[in-house]
Amino acid sequence: MAPGLDYYRSSEPTEPSVVQVIAADRSSSDTFSTDSEPCDRRLTPSPEPPLRPGVYYNPRLDPKNFLDGPLSYDPATRLRQMLARPGIVIAPGICDGISARCALEAGFDCLYQSGAATTASRLGMPDLAIATLNDFVQSAQMVCGLSPTTPVIADADTGFGGTAMVARTVYQYARAGVAAMHIEDQVQTKRCGHLMGKQVVSREEFVTRIRAAVIARDSIPGGSNFVIIGRTDSAQVLGMDEAIARLKLAADAGADVCFIEGVKTAELLTKTVETLKPKPVLVNVISGGLTPSFTCKEAEAHGAKIIIFSLVSCVAAVHGIRAAMQSLKKTGTDFTSAQGMDPKAFFEVMGLHDVVDLDARAGGKAYEVV
Predict the structure, then answer these.
(1) Residue 305 and residue 283: Cα distance in Å, rounded?
(2) Of 31, 25, 47, nearest to 223 (Cα)?
(3) Which of 27, 94, 159, 239 is most buried when burial is the number of CB atoms within 10 A of its CB?
(4) Catalytic-role residue among 62, 74, 96, 155
(5) Annotated catalytic residue: which of 78, 211, 231, 246?
(6) How far apart are alpha carbons 71 and 36 in whole angstroms?
(7) CA neighbours within 13 Å on the CB side: how many for 41?
(8) Is 52 a residue of the active site?
């Protein structure tokens, strides 16, 4: 059986009972073992929940295994810990290195790499299936490298092709340091989820994409905690009932989180959360988009576990850069738009002190004066 497929249980499982290792001061990614253990570890049977035929269940990724202990240095494991524990996960959308630095400076502990933002910042183009897997991966490598322990949730559009490309996307995102990705049910010529005229694939094709992503994740040597998020854009095309039905199928296929794009009311968000329990639900807030402008507290009150603000940095950048350019054109100087920020102050936001400190600790003298 192909790696990962053994987690899709039949109605009459024949595998032996799973043994859970409970340990102190060990990361959750190292939780399961049948080897002999030191005396400070104890083995207890881990009962599996009742499953319908063909429903995915991987005991290693059970949320209960991520409830306790310090936050992991591995971003995917850390995100699973955040999902398993109280509180909503807030992930501001970033579009480049500058916006990522600003988000980290503000104290956010999770980031969102938006497909629309990536397409706009790298290509200067609209979110109409123009950016490629390479564009997304290269952006992710840069963002994840700025703070390697901070989870980054990344848009993966439709997976950029068939099942082989979905699997390749998972491998490349995981290798880049991404903690989670969401994959959707739009056709390949997709568009931003808050534009009109969307088209979606069949339920079967959507589930195939999710299953391919899950199998790819479970095939990564060493046991990856990479998070798979199933996203549906079908609410505006086929209605909320169909959207929820698709997310149920995605959850059965192994999606760790469910993402319904364009949920139009608080009542519908609450209904979605209640129907999909215990799967966590992600809500995407875009000012002026299809979803109400929920605050973080409001989204949490309605049961959402993750809230992303996809275009918060892009829109702010357009306003700020546009105003600066118009001011320069009108006045012939950038003095006003600079607001007193000199080059050194700018580079300090970009991590200047970290680089200078590294050089000094290594014995270098290149940046004794900057």
Answers:
(1) 8
(2) 31
(3) 94
(4) 155
(5) 231
(6) 26
(7) 17
(8) no
Say which of 62, 96, 127, 233 is annotated catalytic.
127
Tell me which of 7, 284, 302, 314 is the catalytic residue.
284
**Cα end-to-end distance, the chain, whole Å:** 59
For residue 146, which of 75, 76, 70 has the smallest C-alpha distance?
Answer: 75
Distance, CA of 140 to CA of 160 (rounded, Å): 16
pLDDT digits (tens, 9 = 90+) for 262-313: 899 999 999 999 999 999 999 999 988 889 999 999 999 999 999 999 999 9
Q: What is the pLDDT of residue 51?
A: 58
The one catalytic residue among 62, 74, 233, 261: 261
Distance CA 264, CA 246 (A): 17
| φ and ψ of 237, to 5 deg | -100, -45
Tell me which amino acid residue 354 is.
D
Sign of CA dihedral 164, 207, 198, 99: negative
pLDDT digits (tens, 9 = 90+) for 87-99: 999 999 999 999 9
- Please state, as a whole number, how many other Cβ atoms lie within 10 Å of the Cβ of residue 178: 28
Q: Is 261 an annotated catalytic residue? A: yes
Q: CA distances (Å), 343 to each of 24, 111, 318, 346, 352, in order? A: 47, 26, 21, 5, 11
Q: What is the DSSP letter of 307?
A: E
Is 35 known to be catalytic? no
Instruction: Please indicate whether residue 185 is annotated as part of the active site.
Output: no
